[in-house]
Structures are given as C-alpha cells and as structure tokens.
Amino acid sequence: MHARITVFASAVVLLALVSLAPTLQFPSSAEVSTFIGPRVWPLSLLIALLGLGGALLFITWRDQRNGTAAEDEQEITLTPQSRNLTFASTRHWWLIATTIVYTWLIGVVGFLIASIAFTLVCTLLLGARSWRTVLITIVIATLLMQGVFVMLLGIPL
Q1: Number of C-beta neighbours around residue 44 at 10 A
Q2: Dihedral of the alpha carbons of 143, 145, 150, 152, in degrees to the nearest 10
C-alpha cells in the first residue's frame, strides 16, 4: 500500500514541477489589464499540488517508518466488499455525467444559468437535503461567480 501511495504522491509532485516552467511564462497581473492575471490560478494550483503532494509523501514516509500501515492494510483486507451498485457507490459517475451536461448546457443557455443549474444538481448529488442549505449554496456560488468573473477578471456574464 505504501508503494502505491508513494508512486502517486511522487507523480503529483513531478507533475507540479514539470508544469511550473510553462506556468511561469504566462503574463502576470502587471502585464495585463485585469486585477488578476492569467498566471495566478495555475500557479495557485501548482503550489497546492506541490504542498499536498509533499505532505502525502511525508505522511507516507512517516507511517512506513512507524509501521502503522500494516494495521490499516489488515483492516482493509478483512472487510468484505459489497458488490451491490448503490447511489453512493456510483456517485462519482453521476458527477462526471453532470459535468458533461453542464459543459453542453453552457453553449445552450449561457454560463450563469448553466452554472446555477450545475450548482443545484451537484449540491443535491453531494448529499444536501435541506432546501435552505441548497438555496444558500446556490446564492453564494452565484455571488462568487459574479465576483470572480465580473469584478476580478473583467469578463461580463
């Protein structure tokens, strides 16, 4: 188990390091007319990938030295796996399908309406049952989209 996690974490760190050089070639906010330049978002993601990948490598290395993974692996192998298809076991496929429909819907009804519908469906898929929670999530997501795209990036919706 440690080998797989180590390979995955190493691949994440390697991807971030390889992507760093092209990302630094994007124009900064000082070189464009918007408040936030095109370099900010990819660079933020790369920093997060480096940090989280490095943390995963460190935690895996520490657990391997302490020998705590053997107990976890035994627990995993002893629990029987359910072969029944339930909504919870296929939720990731529903989210992928929703993302594909969202991408198509942007061209049909526009970004803002498609994003509100996407937020509604994803909030329900991820388990929100209170309509108050769903409504608050949709309002906050809409305000964030307006704030980021219209105010920070200067892109009209």
Answers
A1: 11
A2: 100
pTM: 0.57
d(CA 29, CA 151): 14
Point out the least confidently predicted range of 40-44, 65-69, 99-103, 121-125.
65-69
Question: What is the distance between the alpha carbons of residues 61 and 54, in angstroms, rounded to a whole number?
Answer: 10
Structure tokens that stand for 89 in this block:
């076991």
Report how far apart, in Å, the C-alpha atoms of 144 and of each of 42, 46, 139, 154, 155 are: 19, 22, 9, 14, 13
Please answer whether residues 16 and 53 qualify as being in contact, where contact means their C-beta atoms are separated by less than 8 angstroms. yes
Q: How far apart are the first and last CA of the chain?
A: 47
